[in-house]
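Hi R.,

Here's the chain you asked about this morning:
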Amino acid sequence: MDHERQSEEAEVLLKLSRICMDFGKVRVLLEVSLEVKRGEIHSIIGPNGAGKTVMLNCISGLYRPQEGDIFFKGRRINDLKAHQRAQLGIARTFQKIELFKGMTVLDNIRLGRHLHLKSGILSGALYVGKTAREEIEHRVFIEEEIIDLLEIAHIRNHVVGMLPYGLQKRVELGRALALKPELILLDEPLAGLNLEEVEDMARFILDINQDERWQTTCVLVEHDMGVIMDISDRVFVLNFGVPIIDGSPEEVQSNRAVIKAYLGEEDLYATRR
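And the predicted structure, written out as tokens:
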């Protein structure tokens, strides 16, 4: 029994325990607990203002909750800054694209590799020997693993600010992947995309989760319920900062409280017909 318990605990990559987050006198998260197992696509859904992005900000280190604990690979990370959590293997994308618009696609993605660079400033400026070899290795990784995966080879040297919104979304995902994270936090990656772009992005998310070269655990905040139910292993539902359910897509779809809070009473009756 102890061996089984240890095995189950080993599978948990991310754990939130009774997280409470206040902005002034407004409580945004109320005793939120969540376990994300390694290899999952674990989605977070809820109405606007439910606290979904706040959860991601707490996990990534942009916010520090007033109460509760956050564990990554069994380590309590409450006191770690955002860049320290990135060094542990946590990457994220943002609801509003946060790219360097005056730089090229390739340069934006290269910035995501800076935590893996070992050369110092002086050797980097000289660009010889070990530094040159390191730069070549990172360039190969970006070109063969990220740019090919996201199908953006044709725009690698384009200035990001001149690209359509859908392609900018891919570049932001590419920059997060450049960290080679164990956990990636995706904040509405499908927002503002057309149908074809949504299908492509959903495919990319499945690829980074399932491909043996990546096997990245994903925490996904998204409003597209069709995609959520199609690609998620588990779905966590928030309503005004209060957890409703954490279960399989089938369990969430049939939960009366979820239907009432998220979809509305009319949809409750529609699902019965």
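Residues 97-179 form one domain.

Let me know if you need anything else.
M.
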